[in-house]
Amino acid sequence: MKMISKSRILSLIFALLFGFQAFAEKTNLERVEPPFWWAGMASTELQLMVYGQNISETTPVLTYNGVSIRQVIHVESPNYLFIDIEFDANVKPGHFSIQFMDDKKVKASYDYELKPRKKDACEFKGFDNSDVIYLLMPDRFSNGDPSNDNIPDMLEKADRNKPNGRHGGDIQGIIDHLDYFNDLGVTALWINPLLENNMETYSYHGYAMTDFYKVDPRFGSNADYAELVEKAHEKGLKIIMDMVFNHCGTGYYWKDDLPMKDWYNQWPEFTRSNYRGGVVTDPHQSEYDYNKMVKGWFDVTMADLNQENKLLANFIIQNSIWWIEYVGLDGIRQDTYPYPYQDFMSQWMERVLLEYPNYNVVGEVWLSYPQAVAYWMQNERNKDGKQSGLTNVFDFPLMYAISKAFNEDEGWASGTAQLYEVLSQDYVYEEPLDLVVFADNHDGDRLYTKLKEDINSFKMSMAYLLTTRGIPQLYYGTELLMTGEEHKGHGYIREDFPGGWPGDPMNAFTPEGRSEEQNEAFNFLQSLLQWRKTSQAVQFGKLTHFVPEEGVYVYFRHTDKEAVMILINNSEEEKTIDLDRFNERLAGYTSCTHVLSGNKIKLGKSIVVPEKSPMVLQLHP
Ligand code: CA
Q1: 364 tagged catalytic
Q2: Is position 408 annotated as part of the catalytic site?
């Protein structure tokens, strides 16, 4: 038994006689968010959301040079306070105490820090056409720390036998393989959401967030995330964060105590979104369809956030800026872009670009027509006068075309003609180079499955993806010819990266652990990716293409100083291509280097392209 000292007994008596009442009246301050901020941000306003039992009965006060409380907002729940803080433009970094007073007594206090900024706002450069983005799902990529697979007070435990369960992948697993990304030749990682998803089942994917300010402990800590970004930067890799503003997980701590009822879009009974993104911009839209689209819930586990509530809007906007600044993010991928209120999203983009003028956000606008996608990208031409302000959008129309083109016989409107047709509509975009182009992602059939597991089709589609206009995005495992059909369940298109777990029978991070066919695919991609880093023409150059003839699609990427010719023979026969047709682009060039083989040849009257294969030629004067 532990001895209790005399002084301890005395203090207990003292507490019982005098202190207990004061202790009981102390308010338990559970959250202040954002938990800290920075001095010298472009906006001089900050709105704190404070959560604690009956906190609204207190009055917050603070004393710090250059910081003042402008307004305190009370809401329906007595357990919240929103504090509008104003900074002087030249406020200095430091700490101040926010004291929550009631009748001259301090009921609670919070040490608030204004950190110094590590980087100038303009140094947040975003991503651009020199990048190739690699999308990975953290639960499925690599388990670098098996000790965090199960966390006692978190609902779902790891079980690798369940396709839709948690498998234990984490941030450490990504840190452990930074050299793999450089070896492959990608330059930026888009990581599916890392924030807490404390839901009973199906929580591995990360899209039902239960704490916007906290990395899921099964992935690591906030500090681990910051470390990942720092180490990635040391190796020249960028990190793009996956953010979700449309909804949050129904397990969020605030579920039973919302600040106000309209924090969520409420329905008398569960009402699902109609997922009809086109309704938002439809000039003939009905109110019924619009409400379902924007206010309907994404899923029973995903509560629809009401961004028309100004306090919620501020909460989300500040949260995104907090993450950019805190871990030093290089970009954002925004989920389900047309689902939240349109004006709110524009307001958010304005605020991000106010803080970081050179920043990038790529939005998921899952619509299959170029004009529908163009509406959501920075666009001065929208007839309704609205502008999303979004810098980049995923090119879903081209994804669909790539998925079909290399599976079909060549024809007037089939095969590579589909690629031609999609790009011929680029007039709808202010800047088609800003599109993020991809062949597969975490939501659909894997590319190799769509290509009926044909390695030649794989090579043609990858050569196309990496040389057409736009910023290419690859999906983890595509380089290993991983397969998977979405209709079987999302778990099947998000299988574990082989070798990512201790004791895996195969380690596909190394050539020895890959099959012969996987090495063929990996090496093909690696050659293209490493070369792409050196070619300004393929990254930023103009695209000139020719209508496919006889099953061969030919296009050029060119700048004043450099030109690349790409020929894709999607037919079943070897083709001899007469080069006269391309005089407008070939004039002045006498030879070329095959990018994939390194062979140099003289340019003659014609060129032979083997069946079902791409040819990438660097032209020389
Ligand atoms: Ca783990």
Answers
A1: yes
A2: no
